[in-house]
């Protein structure tokens, strides 16, 4: 058996595994970790919606909007990524009457990959 061949194959395999692990972390998408108000929650009128993601966001391309049951956007302020915590985005809300609201989010990771989603909450 050729020991030299086996050690070279092992080094090649190790490099391949490390390369794939690195590529997976570089091309990762970001997803919500916590949401305030939480998905499905019934709350008193919140002053903002805040979402914390599992990785840093690209501020220029990430957004949050909130719509009422009729689909009308209720936030007039623009969402902003927190300057100190790039994993967090929030948007200020006006005083909301009782009803069902939907949060629409777009998260662009610092690597440029985009994810998006929606969730609802109720104001009592």
From TrEMBL:
Transmembrane segments: none annotated. The keyword GTP-binding does not apply. SUPFAM superfamilies: E set domains. Gene3D superfamilies: 2.60.40.1220. GO terms for molecular function: copper ion binding. InterPro entries: CopC/D (IPR032694), CopC_dom (IPR007348), Cu-Rt/internalin_Ig-like (IPR014755), Ig_E-set (IPR014756). Residues 33-123 form the CopC domain. One of its GO terms (cellular component) is cell envelope. Signal peptide: none annotated. Coiled coil: none annotated. GO terms for biological process: copper ion transport; response to copper ion. It comes from the Bacteria. It is found in: Cell envelope. Its main location: other. Keywords: Copper, Metal-binding, Signal. This is Protein YobA. The gene is yobA.
């Amino acid at each position: 058996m050729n020991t030299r061949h086996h050690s070279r194959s092992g080094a090649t395999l190790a490099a391949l595994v490390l390369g794939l692990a690195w590529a997976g972390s570089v091309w990762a998408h970001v997803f919500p970790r916590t949401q305030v108000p939480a998905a499905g929650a019934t709350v008193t009128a919140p002053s903002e919606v805040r979402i914390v993601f599992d990785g840093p966001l690209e501020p220029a391309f990430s957004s949050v909007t909130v719509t009422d049951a009729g689909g009308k956007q209720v936030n007039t302020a623009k969402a902003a990524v927190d300057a100190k915590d790039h994993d967090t985005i929030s948007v200020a809300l006006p005083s909301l009457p009782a009803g069902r609201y939907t949060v629409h989010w777009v998260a662009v990771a610092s690597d440029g990959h985009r994810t998006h989603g929606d969730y609802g909450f109720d104001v009592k």
